[in-house]
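User: I'm curious whether this sequence folds into something compact or stays loose and floppy. Could you predict its structure so I can see for myself?
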Amino acid sequence: MSAAPASDSLLDVRNLSVSFAGRQVVSEISFSLRPGEKLALVGESGSGKTVTALSLLRLLHDAQISGQALFDGRDLLAMPERELMAVRGREIAMIFQEPMTALNPVYTVGDQIAEVLQLKQALSRQEAHEAAVRLLADTGITEPARRANSYPHQLSGGQRQRAMIAMALACKPRLLLADEPTTALDVTLRGQILDLLSALQRSNGMAVLLITHDLNLVRKFADRIAVMENGVLVEQGDVEAVFQNPQHPYTRRLIESRPTRAVSEGSAGVEEVMRASELRVAYPISIPGIRGWFRKGEFVAVKQAGFSIGKGRTLGIVGESGSGKSTLALAALGLLPLGGELQVLGRRWGPDAAGNKAIRRLVQVVFQDPFSSLSPRMTVEELVGEGLLVHEPGLDEAERRARVIEALSDVGLGEGQFPGLLQRYPHEFSGGQRQRLAIARALIVRPELLVLDEPTSALDVTIQKQVLQLLQGLQQKKGLSYLLITHDVDVIRAMAHDVMVMKDGNIVEAGTVAQVLDAPQEEYTRVLVAAAS
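Assistant: Here's the prediction. I'll summarize afterward.
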């Protein structure tokens, strides 16, 4: 879908196409961006939105690019490299998705910001360092002079992203390309970074091209929206107009992809599958100075946690990074030394408990990223059936294969869709299909409880909804219990019966979903819920 070029545009993209080795990934898209305007380029993975942004500055290796990208009347795509280098950073800057990989680990963040100022504005070393500290202060980093001397790994995720923003805005660019600037952040940090970008955008009068798949973020931040599907721009317009009345089926599907609740409410008094009381998990840490020669300190990641999960019910644990929720999940899987009491179906459970093998069959896990949790060297049959070799070694090959086929059928995968399914490898499947394989791998030993560690956060929004619907259906069909770890309040609303909110290793609030999310008592819970709305 093309947009008529605007006469007052800062950026006019006309019939932009991008190909790699003859394969077109962006097809003749056109859009414009006025000074001071915020445009969101939206789509799922593979839609071409990041390729579009990178092509504007010609940052793509071995890409064939055609069309025009007129920046203040100058065609970025036809500009000599030396002239384009002067534009990069000074007039058009970019914030990348993952600051930990975008920042150089061997230089302090202050040196990296100062380098931009020395190269682009010819400041002296001392002037550039002082300006870098001021920029860090402008982005809200506390103790900016000290943080300027820190390396990227010494900063939190939010601080690293603020440092990236400081670097991008060092030369006060007229256009900022922000590629998923909040995806790697917790929900409250996302709100803070959005507010920061909005404030800096207003004070500097710059235009922003925001690359994202987060529709909540788009609605809060952008003036206009452009929707991409498979390299084609299918719809664009004012944010409210598109959200209220989407014209293209793909746009409607994106907007309707918010998780919906479809769980059996059941009774709170059912049989307990897992119970924890006074649960405590601590890690040894080094003590600085001479005292560290003689003893170790400890960091307590989970403090006196107590909970229970009934048969066929879901307990959701929500909190930010560092809250202790993933540590609690590892403890529930029997993978960490712990204090207190943890039971599965009335039997003691933990690394040193008797009868661990029998209990381990009852508690299985589905991890966040199926691509890294599935061995690339094993076929589907080997991956899904591996648990049977441990827990049901008496099965022969035909019986194991039948169980594998049954588990794959339960998650919606079959030979009809994928000829030769059992002999395929994980890389031959999409992200959503790989997550279905991971679920089948967990289900094959017929567990009572699944620990779901951010099971949809690595997936696109429409695929996320499909996986959640699958998990909801499996729970109702098989009476499964779930321990759901997530930072996404919408996923908790869709999946959980009960919810615990964690902060700094403590459970700050617990109850039913309605009690905790609709009428939160604690300020921290209210902040989490408000940031997700």
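Summary: DSSP finds 21 helices and 20 strands in the chain. The chain has three domains: 1-91+174-256, 106-172, 272-532.
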